[in-house]
Amino acid sequence: MTAIARKPGYADYKSLSAFSGDTVAYLDHNWGYQTMAVNFDEPLQEFFDRFELPIRSVEFTCVNGYVLASVRFYIIPCDLVAKMEKERAGLLDKYSLFSMFVFPWEVENREDLPDYETIHRSIPELKERGSVLLPWKEEYKEVIGRYLVQNVQFNWDESWEK
Predict the structure, then answer these.
(1) Distance between CA 21 and CA 15 in Å, rounded?
(2) Phi then psi for 159, rounded to 5 degrees?
(3) Among 154, 161, 158, 160, which Cα is nearest to 27's?
(4) Using the 8-state DSSP alphabet, how is residue 126 labeled?
(5) How many CB atoms lie under 10 A from the CB of residue 160?
(6) Contact present, 101 and 149 (Cβ < 8 Å)
(7) Is the pTM of this model over 0.70?
(8) Three-state secondary structure call for residue 156
(9) How far apart, in whole angstroms, are the C-alpha atoms of residue 152 and residue 132?
(10) CA-CA-CA-CA torsion for 24, 145, 90, 30, nearest 10 degrees?
(11) What is the CA radius of gyration of the chain?
(12) How many helices (H) and strands (E) does the chain have?
């Protein structure tokens, strides 16, 4: 177990190998509804350090022209995300983790969100308002890893697939 897994409230973290490669079981156990607020106020880098699946694409959402409000990480490529959005958008939750309200962790004032200008320098495709879906780049970890998240959540229920 890593130091992160022993973090209070995260004692039940299990590696992917504990689920015999079942990605849905791995995601649900470690980031499902029962873990709500376990990732609260932690740098996104801590999520990156323990996440064992390849991130294939990412959706950044900015609001008010100056705030990065959320990030969704997909374990499927952009073209498949776009196709599924058109055909069966509900299934996308099965292949993604959602993080809300990313905060700069050096600042205690919760009004200070990751600003568009700072992040746009490293991610020029970012839109001032709205969402953009991009292929994942490892450099994104450095760009957004220092920010605190309210939560990292896997929002899938098998009954939705029926």
Answers:
(1) 10
(2) -65, -20
(3) 154
(4) -
(5) 12
(6) yes
(7) yes
(8) coil
(9) 19
(10) 30
(11) 16
(12) 5, 8
> Are 60 and 71 contacting, i.e. CB atoms less than 8 angstroms apart?
yes
Check if the beta carbon of residue 27 is closer than 8 Å to that of residue 51: no
Largest CA distance in the chain: 45
pLDDT digits (tens, 9 = 90+) for 48-107: 998 999 999 999 998 876 678 889 999 999 999 999 988 887 788 889 998 876 655 445
CA distances from 25 to 29, 41, 47, 102 (A): 6, 25, 17, 26
Going by C-alpha positions, the residue among 65, 75, 67, 73 that lies closest to residue 141 is 73
Distance CA 46, CA 68 (A): 19
Determine the straight-line distance between the first and last CA of the chain, rounded to whole angstroms.
36
Structure tokens at 144: 């957004």
